[in-house]
Amino acid sequence: MVPLLVVLLLALILFGAGFALKALWWLAVIVLVVWLLGFVLRSADNMPVGPG
Fold first, then answer.
1. Which contacts of 6-14 are long-range, i.e. CB under 8 A and separated by 24 or more positions?
2. pTM
3. Better-scored residue on pLDDT, 31 or 25
4. Which member of 28, 41, 44, 50 lies 3.0 to 4.6 Å from 15 by CB, making a disulfide possible if both were Cys?
5. How far apart are CA 45 and CA 52, in angstroms?
């Protein structure tokens, strides 16, 4: 839970600073996409495979 909050806080900080520095905005988008991919892949990894 803590790593999740750290990543979301990092993305929020970078997004806020991104209005001043466009490079940080793009970095925030990349961080968010990587986090979402990790979340989806981790969720898919916990799903049962096949019948039964």
1. 7/31, 7/35, 8/35, 11/35
2. 0.52
3. 31
4. 28
5. 16
